[in-house]
């Protein structure tokens, strides 16, 4: 597994990097057979250290975790525990409910836009009906089953996930509803 360990405006020593590689590697290997790479970022927020970790699996799924503590090692341990819990749940779901995926998830390119909100006076007429585009970037749309899409959305902690349905080859959406359930949008072709 490839590691990228860095700090935002703080120095990360060799001992901490070695500790992260050993502990995160052991936690990930326990629940995921083929992790590809891990990105760990340490930062400081007021008096606390923050550790954010992202692990990419060969199946195309991504697990993310974040930990806070007053000491940098404790922040990493908190993050590592959350990562291990996510991967344990992921493996249990795969074992219990989903078929084994022998090939990596197929990804399709798509454009992603961030639109600016108009916080001006709401009574005034806009000069144009077109929204202002703040950012345009490239994103990937995975080809997954509905169950895998729900799992990926939960692992990423995202409120919504757009994916290509393997069964129907159409673009679908899963999202977390206000009542706590998962919604699935499957447009007719």
UniProtKB/TrEMBL annotation:
Sigma 54 modulation/S30EA ribosomal protein C-terminal domain residues: 130-183
Annotated localization: Cytoplasm
Coiled coil regions, renumbered to chain: 73-100
GO terms for MF: ribosomal small subunit binding
Stored Gene3D superfamilies: Ribosome hibernation promotion factor-like, Sigma 54 modulation/S30EA ribosomal protein, C-terminal domain
GO cellular component, one term: cytosolic small ribosomal subunit
Residues spanning the signal sequence: none
Keywords: Coiled coil, Cytoplasm, Translation regulation
InterPro entries linked to this entry: HPF/YfiA_ribosome-assoc (IPR050574), HPF_long/plastid (IPR034694), RHF-like (IPR036567), RHF/RaiA (IPR003489), Ribosom_S30AE_C (IPR032528), Ribosom_S30AE_C_sf (IPR038416)
Keyword Cytoplasm part of the UniProt annotation: yes
Biological process annotations from GO: negative regulation of translational elongation
Function, as annotated: Required for dimerization of active 70S ribosomes into 100S ribosomes in stationary phase; 100S ribosomes are translationally inactive and sometimes present during exponential growth.
Subunit structure: Associates exclusively with 100S ribosomes, which are dimers of 70S ribosomes.
Family: Belongs to the HPF/YfiA ribosome-associated protein family. Long HPF subfamily.
Protein name: Ribosome hibernation promoting factor
Biological source species: Thalassobius vesicularis
UniProt gene name: raiA
């Amino acid at each position: 597994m490839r590691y990228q360990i860095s700090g935002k405006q703080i120095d990360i020593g060799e001992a901490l990097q070695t500790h992260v590689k050993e502990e995160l590697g052991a936690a990930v290997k326990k629940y995921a057979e083929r992790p590809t790479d891990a990105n760990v970022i340490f930062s400081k927020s007021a008096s606390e250290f923050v550790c954010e970790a992202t692990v990419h699996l060969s199946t195309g799924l991504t697990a993310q975790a974040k930990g806070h503590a007053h000491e940098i090692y404790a922040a990493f341990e908190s993050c590592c525990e959350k990562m291990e819990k996510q991967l344990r749940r992921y493996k249990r779901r795969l074992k219990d409910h989903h078929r084994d995926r022998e090939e990596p998830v197929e990804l399709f390119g798509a454009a992603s836009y961030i639109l600016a909100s108009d916080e001006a006076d709401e009574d005034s007429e806009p000069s144009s009906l077109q929204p202002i585009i703040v950012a345009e970037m490239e994103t990937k749309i995975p080809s997954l089953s509905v169950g895998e899409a729900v799992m990926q959305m939960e692992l990423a902690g995202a409120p919504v996930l757009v994916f290509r349905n393997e069964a129907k080859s159409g673009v679908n959406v899963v999202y977390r509803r206000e009542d706590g359930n998962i919604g699935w949008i499957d447009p007719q072709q």
